[in-house]
Q: What sequence folds into this?
């Protein structure tokens, strides 16, 4: 890997492309052979497509109420998964609900990655008192279980989708800071970085061209695993009434809204519950497959 | 495990708890606007607000407020609930006991079932049971505990009527340990599912690793019976990384308990915490968070100690 990176930073554009191309081909070949991982990818893609094409796929408006048709069972004409308390079509709500449910996890993971990577690279590279301080803060944050920390933040800021995304993202920052700082520290004294420095490369240039390509596989793997956790965490907050609020079809909020009618209409609870289960399962299988394909090990799992 | 190491690890609890008190204290100041306003709502009259601000000491500088709050907290005074006018410490203590019962039972179930599944799967790599455990572990991690809780209460509580799916005791004529046990089964399973999956997965890979270790080959070569190799060498060593994992899982469990308690109306600290957030009863929220964080800190220390005691590499 070290030799690869040296080639990437020093070689001309042509060599750079071919080196990374073959690495990618190797990874995708391994991914293709992993059938369980492939199933995970298909599951995730299917749900993402469902979210993107929600207006086309959903049979009706997820917010349209029709009290005359409340609590229809699954399989009722025109309502494949039945209807809820207000006669809203469950299938349409689950399909539309994919948007907020996925977006929350994706946005939170991106946010946590951005802050965590920036901090991790900078403190790993420069070290010193800033590193010590940042790691103490990280230790304190890790002294709280993730969900508790998210609940604390929402508890202070007040319930709501935006605050829930923020809370969930903040809980993931320590994970990213530690992961990336650790990698930077281990790469910092590698020969290819020394070599770059000796030919007069600036710190910023070294970070971009020598360190980043080496940490990229770890980031991709950690991202795919992290996003599933954060989707689950955000859905948990919504289920407790602390995240997305009704009438949003976000899956956790749907479960919270319908759980009191479980006896009367189990379909209203099972549909969004299965949706959360499938996306988290898909992302977890996909993440494991990616980790095997890139052949990386994460410390913080 | 040297005494110095034990002392150092125990000393680490203090800054952790100290930091937790700062976070908990800050909660009241992170609230948008002002804590008094947040508690009383936008319709509160000016003089009521002013009085509450005075009562809470919100007019003092932050360090003063923190010192006052901390010195009271250390003496066991966590303030009074805004909604119920009860001392927070007493409320937290009562609910914490119920959560501890649920948590300890779930963790025990998770350890026993997770270890057994992972160990059997690891010893029979590639077999049907190994695949079954892998599928179970992937599903157990992915299924939201609150969804599993709802499914269990619907299937075993509502449809089959086998087990109660709400509260800790029957309202009438209940109360004995048998009654408590019946009420514990469903919430304990719902809460244990995720840790079972994590423990089984970890035990499996740790067993695979140990099975091919040199000392296991040596033990076999020495002529030890297969059962004594399995239990004395493989199982014991596979256990070491699990102990460390348990400390983390206890933390996950302590916070996930809120999700399960809400479904089963279990009168624990998790549902108290969520209620207090929804009704903006900040002193109660602070008390709950502090109790959970403190419990987590102590459990992690205990796990580290047990880890050190078991791992021969940690002995000086």
A:
């Amino acid at each position: 890997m070290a030799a690869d990176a040296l080639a990437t930073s020093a070689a001309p554009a042509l060599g750079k492309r071919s080196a990374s191309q073959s690495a990618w081909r190797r990874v995708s070949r391994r991914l293709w052979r992993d059938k369980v991982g492939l199933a995970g990818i298909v599951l995730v893609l299917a749900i993402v497509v469902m979210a993107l094409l929600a207006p086309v796929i959903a049979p009706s408006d997820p917010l349209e109420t029709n009290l005359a048709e409340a609590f229809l069972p699954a399989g009722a004409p025109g309502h494949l998964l039945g209807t809820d308390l207000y006669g809203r079509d469950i299938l349409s709500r689950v399909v539309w609900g994919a948007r907020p449910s996925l977006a929350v996890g994706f946005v939170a993971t991106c946010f946590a990655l951005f802050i965590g990577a920036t901090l991790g690279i900078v403190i790993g590279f420069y070290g010193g008192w800033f590193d010590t301080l940042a790691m103490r803060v990280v230790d304190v944050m890790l002294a709280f279980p993730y969900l508790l920390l998210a609940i604390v933040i929402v508890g202070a800021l007040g319930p709501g989708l935006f605050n829930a995304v923020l809370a969930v993202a903040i809980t993931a920052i320590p994970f990213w800071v530690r992961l990336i700082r650790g990698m930077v520290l281990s790469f910092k004294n590698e020969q290819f970085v020394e070599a770059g420095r000796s030919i007069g490369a600036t710190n910023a240039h070294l970070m971009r061209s020598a360190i980043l390509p080496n940490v990229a596989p770890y980031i991709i793997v950690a991202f795919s695993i992290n996003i599933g956790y954060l989707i689950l965490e955000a859905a948990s907050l919504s289920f407790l009434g602390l995240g997305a609020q009704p009438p949003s079809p976000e899956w956790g909020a749907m479960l919270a809204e319908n759980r009191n009618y479980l006896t009367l209409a189990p379909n209203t609870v099972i549909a969004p519950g299965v949706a959360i289960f499938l996306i988290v399962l898909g992302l977890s299988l996909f993440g494991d497959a990616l980790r095997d394909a890139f052949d990386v090990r994460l410390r913080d799992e | 495990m040297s005494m110095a190491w034990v002392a150092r690890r125990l000393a680490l609890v203090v800054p952790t708890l100290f930091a937790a008190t700062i976070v908990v204290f800050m909660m009241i100041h992170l609230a948008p606007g002002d804590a008094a306003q947040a508690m009383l709502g936008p319709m509160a009259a000016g003089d009521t607000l002013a009085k509450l601000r005075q009562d809470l000491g919100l007019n003092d500088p932050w360090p003063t407020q923190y010192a006052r709050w901390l010195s009271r907290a250390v003496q066991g005074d966590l303030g009074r609930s805004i909604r119920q006018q009860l001392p927070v410490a007493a409320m937290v203590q009562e609910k914490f006991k119920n959560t501890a019962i649920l948590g300890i039972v779930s963790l025990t179930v998770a350890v026993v079932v997770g270890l057994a599944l992972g160990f059997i799967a690891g010893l029979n790599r590639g077999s049907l049971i190994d695949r079954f455990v892998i599928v179970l572990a992937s599903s157990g991690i992915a299924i939201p505990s609150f969804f599993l809780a709802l499914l269990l209460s619907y299937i075993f509580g509502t449809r089959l009527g086998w087990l109660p799916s709400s509260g800790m005791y029957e309202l009438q004529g209940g109360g004995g340990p048998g009654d408590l046990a019946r009420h514990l089964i469903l919430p304990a399973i719902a809460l244990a599912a995720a840790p079972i999956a994590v423990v089984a997965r970890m035990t499996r890979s740790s067993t695979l690793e140990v099975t091919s270790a040199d000392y296991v080959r040596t033990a076999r070569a020495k002529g030890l019976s297969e059962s004594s190799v399995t239990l004395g060498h493989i199982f014991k060593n596979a256990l070491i990384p699990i102990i460390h994992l348990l400390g983390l899982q206890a933390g996950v469990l302590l916070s996930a308990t809120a999700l399960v308690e809400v479904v089963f109306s279990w009168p624990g600290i998790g549902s108290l915490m969520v209620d207090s957030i929804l009704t903006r009863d900040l002193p109660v929220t602070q008390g709950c968070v502090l109790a959970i964080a403190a419990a987590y800190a102590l459990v992690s220390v205990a796990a580290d100690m047990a880890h050190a005691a078991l791992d021969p590499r940690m002995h000086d």
